[in-house]
Write a structure and sequence with these properties.
Elements lengths: L1 H12 L15 H4 L6 E3 L12 E15 L3 E13 L4 E12 L3 H10 L1 E2 L3 E2 L1 E3 L2 E14 L4 E8 L1 E3 L15 E10 L2 E12 L7 E15 L2 E12 L21 H6 L5 E12 L2 E11 L20 E11 L7 E10 L14 E2 L2 E2 L8 E12 L2 E14 L34 E15 L7 E12 L4 E12 L10
Antiparallel strand pairs: 1-10, 2-3, 2-25, 3-4, 4-8, 5-6, 7-8, 8-9, 9-11, 11-12, 12-13, 13-14, 14-15, 15-16, 16-17, 17-18, 18-21, 19-20, 21-22, 22-23, 23-24, 24-25
Length: about 475
């Protein structure tokens, strides 16, 4: 009762906060509505940017009760400090502590991976899970053309709900970011350090550098060129640290990586966006490995589907007020990732951080469709979200390409290593449907205090397993982050 009273007091403090824009029920709303660069820093969705001038302190609090096939409740509390003026300096600081129970599916995930998706490492005691979500950003606008930022947070590249290049799926990580803007070009250098906890509780460091070149070709067409490299900080033989070769700010690392005898994990990709009035068509292409030497005219054993041909793509469309229906937002998206994509010969150099993918939460070896419809009216907001995924799961002792934490050199196909004949859905073919309907209400006008209710359904079917879960949630929040396990 004392905890609930504390949360209630924090909620009362929140009444003075400025309200969000009408599309406000979801954590990812601000970046789905973003019209500028598609390399997004993950800012707090709790405060509209226009209200950040000066020093602002905001409480964070929530309480959720769920019932249905599983009954649980959880709460969080914390605060946010932000400072921004018309000069060149800015910073933000968030700290939120979470404690409570979760659904059966979620608790199974937390027990296996020791991480709450996108939020932080969890600790379990007496059937309750706790974590702390801490992040900060400190930025300085050097000039009209150059900006620098350091912090512990995450980033998102793309224009859709998912990203196959770099997403906000994982926990926060330390970073140093440089942004250069001129003419129709925006160029970003991102230097980071990630943590591997696959052998929990052992923690090992790996480092990464990202380059992203965003070019506005025409007023309504933009293209982004993406490049990243990941390497482990040390192995059994020597300590490498942050390799000075990768401080190079110039895009296209592949020549540098080859000069290092190709020891590291390099990914390349592109992001495309076309806008027409209130409609946007977007897509992504990611290339991990393409072993073009394995061609039919060069290898008599060639049969297609070589395991080192690893790539992914996305195509989607979204619209704000389609057909001039005000306050309506719709999105449709398709994602496909080949088996073993994002994995690496050395598991320490896979495309992950804190037991989560840096791109799509499903890892690899899947097809996915996403649909979102959101409508706002005055203080009310209603959202329908649907995800359908078809993927190939592993049974005991096999590796068919979904688990990106394992070495891709353990590729399994009829007992043969370096296998051919790989295809999406190989292994234990599984179909998963996730549906959520969320209704939120702004409790006090011009405040950031929301009441909400949600119905969530998860259905999973394969030859070995059938899983169905339906539960209902009621709650009150000042921070409307996305805490869905929609994967």
């Amino acid at each position: 009762m004392r905890k609930l009273s504390s949360i209630f007091i924090l909620l009362l403090f929140s009444l003075s906060l400025s309200a969000q824009q009408s599309y406000s029920s979801l954590y990812y709303s601000y970046r789905l509505l973003e019209k500028e660069s598609s390399f997004h820093p993950i800012l707090s969705p709790k405060v509209p940017q226009k209200s950040l001038l000066g020093l602002n302190v905001f409480p964070i609090a929530s309480y959720t009760h769920a019932f249905g096939e599983s009954t649980f409740d959880c709460h969080s509390f914390g605060f946010r400090v932000a400072y921004k003026t018309k000069n060149r300096f800015r910073f933000s600081f968030n700290n939120e502590k979470f404690k409570g129970k979760q659904s059966t599916y979620s608790e199974s995930y937390l027990d296996d991976f020791h991480i709450f998706p996108g939020r932080g490492e969890v600790q379990e005691k007496a059937g309750k899970y706790a974590f702390q979500d801490f992040n900060y950003r400190i930025g300085y606008n050097i000039s009209k053309y150059f900006d620098v930022e350091i912090g512990k947070n995450k980033h998102f590249i793309g224009d859709g709900y998912r990203s196959l290049l770099l997403s906000d799926n994982s926990s926060n990580y330390p970073f140093l970011r440089f942004t250069t803007s001129f003419w129709k070009v925006k160029y970003t250098n991102l230097y980071t350090t990630f943590t591997d906890i696959w052998d929990y509780p052992i923690k090992r460091k790996k480092h990464a550098t990202f380059h992203y070149l965003d070019l506005q070709l025409l007023e309504n067409i933009s293209i982004g060129i993406f490049e990243s490299v990941i390497w482990q900080s040390s192995d059994d033989h020597y300590y490498r640290g942050f390799d000075y070769n990768y401080w190079n700010p110039i895009i296209f690392y592949r020549p540098v990586e080859f000069s290092q005898h190709s020891p590291d994990n390099v990914l390349m990709g592109a992001n495309l966006k076309y806008s027409y009035k209130q409609y946007n068509i977007y897509g992504q292409l990611l290339l991990d490995d393409l072993n073009i030497s394995r061609q039919k005219d060069r290898d008599e054993n060639y049969s297609g589907g070589f395991f080192q041909n690893k790539f992914a793509y996305q195509i989607g469309m979204k619209a704000i007020s389609p057909f001039n229906l005000q306050n309506l937002f719709v999105l449709g998206e398709y994602n496909q990732v080949q088996p073993y994509t994002y994995a690496h010969k050395s598991p320490m150099q896979n495309y992950t951080h804190m037991n989560q993918a840096l791109s799509h939460p499903l890892g690899a070896n899947f097809k996915e469709m996403v649909g979102i419809v959101n409508y706002s009216y005055q203080k009310w907001n209603l959202e329908f979200k649907w995800n359908r995924a078809i993927y190939g799961a592993d049974s005991t002792g096999t590796h068919f390409g979904k688990n990106i934490f394992l070495s891709d050199f353990e590729a399994e196909r009829d007992g043969e290593q370096y296998s051919y004949g790989n295809f999406i859905g190989q292994g234990l073919k599984t179909t998963q449907d996730y549906i959520s309907i969320t209704l939120s209400y702004q409790a006090i006008k011009n405040s950031n205090l929301y009441l909400y209710g949600q119905i969530t359904s998860r259905e999973l079917n394969s030859d070995l397993e059938e899983f169905n879960q339906l539960y209902y949630m009621l709650g009150i929040k000042t921070n409307l982050h996305n805490s869905s396990f929609d994967f």
